[in-house]
Design brief:
- This protein has about 190 residues and is an all-alpha fold.
- Helix 5 packs antiparallel against helix 9.
- The chain is elongated.
């Protein structure tokens, strides 16, 4: 016999509470008990959904990325990339890069979390860019055969800024990064 289905409102409240705590006070202060108190859910409800604060962080981050990242198809490689990169920068600026720093910190503690983060958060986001490069290639805008390299050219500088130079995440930097990636994409 199965129990009651999970209430999506409770799921959302738990994820939001986790994100709010990380954004306000940092990942080091995140506890399952704190999430329960802030969300209004019981500790049992939180633990039933998530075995660890790392799993909760991944689920919360996945939900916010799904809500905030666009899926542009403007017909222009530069415009599509710029929309995605700016949206990513905007999201990180809104939480002072606390989410990415939390993922990086938790990843340093164990390879299981790193594998889950790669599968649930990183790979799907890279797929957005892979789609953009694929459409641009069909239009003749991309001659570089290595989409993974082009995606790395986006994520490398972005992660560096997220972890070490947060103030770099400006609209001007988004444009410069976009232009550099577009130039690399056309060199082939």
């Amino acid at each position: 016999m199965q129990g009651r289905p999970r209430d999506p409102a409770i799921d959302a409240a738990i994820r939001k509470a986790a994100l709010d705590i990380v954004a306000e006070r940092g990942y080091g202060t995140l506890t399952m008990e704190g999430v329960a108190a802030r969300s209004g859910a019981s500790k049992q409800a939180v633990y039933r959904r998530y075995a660890s604060k790392g799993e909760l962080l991944l689920a919360a981050l996945d939900s916010v990325l799904h809500e905030t990242l666009p899926t542009p198809d403007t017909g222009s490689l530069r415009e599509d990339l710029l929309l995605l990169i700016r949206a990513g920068f905007d999201m990180h600026r809104s939480n002072n890069s606390a989410f990415s720093q939390a993922v990086a910190a938790e990843t340093a503690h164990g390879s299981d979390f790193a594998k889950r983060a790669l599968e649930s958060v990183i790979k799907p986001r890279r797929e957005f860019f892979r789609d953009v490069f694929g459409r641009a290639r069909e239009r003749g805008e991309v001659t570089c055969p290595d989409d993974e390299l082009l995606i790395d050219l986006i994520y490398g500088p972005m992660w560096y800024a997220l972890l070490f130079d947060f103030n770099r995440l400006t609209d001007a930097y988004a444009e410069s990064l976009t232009d550099a990636v577009v130039a690399a994409a056309r060199r082939g």
